[in-house]
């Protein structure tokens, strides 16, 4: 059995959904197929805007709901035959209800994460309904399955965590009987429910996670993630237009790339497949026979650098103070303060010669982090143990990802030399905490050149080996 997940870009319009239908039909002739879908392209963003406008009491929400309605209606009309009217009615009813929910949000001036999840969960329900009806009209037996019936989560609305045992039980009782009966289930990605049955979501981009949860818990032969690029590239194609596809990656490398901003796959989604060593394949709906990437450990995967990725619009915060030497616990205090402000730290580097702690956060959360730092460290600042808290922005982190990096001579120096040759000024370097990446911080304006030069170095190394 194989799980096939189609992202929003593969479900952009009727023509693309038709193409998805052909891919599924082709595979279903060879083996059992379980389908997972995202919402149609752009729909979740529109729903999110709709929720925000409602909270602001903005009448523009009504126009937005009509736009969502008309994009789905036109897909239903172009894609479906006898099922078109019914699909339009079902989607229309849900959108009417959305209108009511938005009115109450506007009246109350309140939007909880729980209500927001309820709103965001609509997109996947619509796309699953349309695709499953299309498969039926193509002669398959199919039904749409709402993720809230099979994935049980905690109460962290907005980014809920699956409760594995309960989820496993549900998945195993609902899906295999359908598949054994010859059906192709189309499961809504991203959506789940709490134990009490309240709708929750797995966080933006969470459809990948749904696919790997199903794949891991059903122990399938493979999970195929369909997107609109030829697998995972050695660099972001927006920065390096001719970047080549990586045939193989390990789970750790894929997780590292996702963490550092590559739009490979939702970071949480590696775990369920890695646990059961289920191969994860990234493929392109627009080029199904083209190059793809298989994520799996062992086999031919080699050591060395594989890919380069980056995240921009960050702030580098440095806590300075000569007095910090020999004063225990300052680093702990610094990071506790940042954590209390609920700010995520992307990279830490501490120099031993200067008594500085430098770390990287998203630019938009930097003010919160600094405010919290100043509060927590008030006493140290007063006593001049801490001299200053300085920031540099906007900066980017550029991460070269691979395996066995600590045990191979010449990789660090190769990366640094390639950057120096192009005149890139390094603001900070992460100390080798991970065997899977070398990361540097550069000014935003140097990001592209930094990525390009590291990419070129990776290409030349791979050609030599
Ligand atoms: N539709 C959701 C989102 O846009 C989930 C997904 O596409 O993976 O975030
Ligand atoms: Mg995605």
What share of residues is helical? 40-55%
Count of β-strands: 17
Q: Which kinds of small molecule does this entry bind, naming each only once?
A: aspartic acid, magnesium ion
The portion of residues forming beta strands comes to 15-25%
Low-pLDDT parts are none
Taking the alpha carbons of the first and last residues, their distance comes to: 36 Å
Q: What characteristic shape results from the CA principal axes?
A: globular
Q: Mean pLDDT across all residues, rounded?
A: 93
Number of helices: 15
User: How does the major sheet shape up?
Assistant: 8 strands, mixed
The side-by-side strand order for the widest beta sheet comes to 3-5-2-1-8-10-11-9
| Helix/strand/pairing category | alpha/beta
Radius of gyration, in Å, reads 24 Å
Brief description of this entry?
This protein has 465 residues and is α/β, with parallel strands linked by helices.
Can you walk me through this structure?
The protein is α/β, with parallel strands linked by helices. It contains 15 helices and 17 strands. The strands form three sheets. The chain has an eight-stranded mixed β-sheet, with helices on both faces. A six-stranded antiparallel β-sheet has the order 13-14-12-15-17-16. The model has no long low-confidence stretch (mean pLDDT 93). The structure holds aspartic acid (ASP) and magnesium ion.
